[in-house]
Amino acid sequence: MKTQRQQLILKLIASTPIATQDQLARELRRRGLRVTQATVSRDIKELGLIKVPAGENLYRYAAPPGQRLINPYGRLQRLFADSVTKIDDSENLILIRTLPGTAHAVASCLDSLDWPEVIGTVAGDDTILVIVKPKEAVATVLQRFRELGEG
């Protein structure tokens, strides 16, 4: 739901000049989504939306160049707290179990952090495989995951 809502937000701001959180919330409600101002505010922050000039003394929301997350660590903390159910490891692999449908979002956020020890992730519906190199770095990565979970 969250991913779909955020994708809709990106489509809306690309096609409609939206200047305020209230206006964005109204547009989402018009499309059948139940949202609060707090939800819209979090989505704006997680998506890293910026305000750009839209005429004289007017501004509108826009996606940042390249649409990279501005605060991927903060988003990952929230995703870990909300989604991760179990973490296990073997050799240079870490397996993260999540609630159904959330693994891709968690893996995408992990990838955006560009940790040098993580050479890649593979996500299914509720499972993420994290590949660590060298295998001696697994303990370091697991500690980071624990810290994320403690938020």
Spell out the key features of this protein.
151 residues, alpha+beta, Arc Repressor Mutant, subunit A, Gyrase A, domain 2, 2 domains, four-stranded antiparallel sheet, two-stranded antiparallel sheet, 6 helices, 6 strands, 22% strand
Task: Tell me the layout of helices and strands.
Blueprint: H1 2-15, H2 21-30, H3 37-47, E1 50-53, E2 59-62, H4 72-83, E3 84-90, E4 93-98, H5 103-113, E5 118-123, E6 127-132, H6 138-150
Antiparallel strand pairs: 1-2, 3-4, 4-6, 5-6
Helix pairs in contact: 2-3, 4-5, 4-6
CATH topology of the largest domain: Gyrase A, domain 2
Binned, the helix content reads: 40-55%
Structural class: alpha+beta
Report strand %: 15-25%
Query: Sheet with the most strands?
Result: 4 strands, antiparallel
Q: What oligomeric state do these chains adopt? A: single chain
Number of domains: 2
Question: What is the annotated CATH architecture of the largest domain?
Answer: 2-Layer Sandwich
| Rg computed from alpha carbons, rounded to a whole number of angstroms | 18 Å
| SSE arrangement, N to C | HHHEEHEEHEEH
> Could you tell me how far the N terminus lies from the C terminus, measured between alpha carbons in angstroms?
22 Å
Please report the first level of CATH classification, the CATH class of the largest domain.
Answer: Alpha Beta
Family: Belongs to the ArgR family.
Pathway: Amino-acid biosynthesis; L-arginine biosynthesis [regulation]
GO molecular function: arginine binding; DNA binding; DNA-binding transcription factor activity
Function: Regulates arginine biosynthesis genes.
